[in-house]
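Follow-up to my earlier ticket, as requested here are the two runs.
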Amino acid sequence: MTQFNLVSPINICNACLVQASRCLHTSSQSLAPVPPLPEKPGKVRHGLIPEEFFQLLYPKTGVTGPYMLGTGLAIYMLSKEIYIINSSTLVALTVGSFFIYGVKKFGPSFAEFADKLNEEKVAKVQEVKDLAVAGLAQAIDSEKKEQWRVEGRSLLFDAKRNNVAALLETNHRERLHMVTNEVKKRLDYQIALQNLHRQMEQEQMVNWVEKSVISSITPQQEKESIAKCITDLKALARNTQAKATA
């Protein structure tokens, strides 16, 4: 839980300087990271005096120096009547007392409520930041994947070129095979046609020779030939019977 007190003037000056440097910085490093603003105020004493004031006077005046300085300054202002105590002083003391009482009484609960609101705002901002970071991370992954795909595109194109070359070669060989089969069929047809002509010529020649031979045989020669055949058959039969009896 944060302490409900006033912000140190030195921290206010530092914050103002950081904001001024953000607004007026126009060099090439304008996008460079800047130190973050303080989330909590600096330490103060008595609800008003910054701790840096005491630390500044300690080396020269000791521990009681700041208090003696404040007391002497107040006595000096009262003795020289620079500040005159009147009714306004009593009103200021009364208002200050009520203010201090309100701070002591309601300060912690109000600080807790403020811290809760701050934490809710920080949680919402952190959620938005996480979503943005997740979206950017996803975009980076997508970009890397696209770069990887672009790098592999050359391999894909090489594979496609090889496939096209293989398809062209296959088509060429299929056409060559088709042409070879067609030429073989035509040659086989010519060979079969020549063989048919040769066979027909041979049959024609045999028929012509037979007709010529038959036409050249006279009836007398036919009778003699038949008689000769009968004689040969009889001689053959006798030889067969002789071999069988022997």
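Run two:
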Amino acid sequence: MAKELRCPDAMPCHNQEVNSVSSLEQPRRGDVIPDHAGGNLAPAEGASQPCRDTSLDSDSNGGRSNCDAPPGDSLLGGCELSGQIGAQLKLLPMNDQIRELQTIIRDKTASRGDFMFSADRLIRLVVEEGLNQLPYKECMVTTPTGYKYEGVKFEKGNCGVSIMRSGEAMEQGLRDCCRSIRIGKILIQSDEETQRAKVYYAKFPPDIYRRKVLLMYPILSTGNTVIEAVKVLIEHGVQPNVIIVLSLFSTPHGAKSIIQEFPEITILTTELHPVAPTHFGQKYFGTD
């Protein structure tokens, strides 16, 4: 009888490095400290830079995180606000490959071809890690040489939901990883009079209430669109604790707003930064 393997509780936060220590003190792996901050509004482009160096070992630094950003730089309050968003926010471990893709996507001089190529690569990385958050079961298979191999396989009952329009850019990345996965759609736009997010269209698999949902939306700016989408999913019987939001970029305010509204939801993204590349959907679909 196959038994369920537990999903990892947390992923390493991006842009984290082990502090340099003296020869008498050896570095050790510490607890995960997620990058995050709070605030009411995302500042204008270039207003601030992310905290790039956060210690993995808070004990070696007197319980405080390091932030080597220049004076005046902050992540909507700085590194001292680490931990307020919580473990439900998961960031891909930062490396040079991811950083380059983020740079190309943010570069206003990048061609649309380079932009789409980089976006698709980053989407694939996020989708792969999103699938890694889903439960697996142990299984036994027989190799062509007759060897018994103990492996794992996905539990059945997963689906994707894209928030139109920019969320549709992530659909192919999900299909590339899960060829037969079912994908629903939801359209949410701001009301011209009230400026509040309003649901205009929603179509889901009929048994979505029994499925785990990968909610795809590449840019989390205010978080309002995702909050409305989650409310619609809840109306269709989906529990927040089985929803994983797949995003490429998020502002601290956007991530914090979503988790404050739905503490059991999981958000997976590559970067937490006060300035989100809100041009993503227009450039990806060629409407900029």
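The only thing I checked on run two: Residues 112-132 form the longest helix (21 residues). Let me know what else you need.
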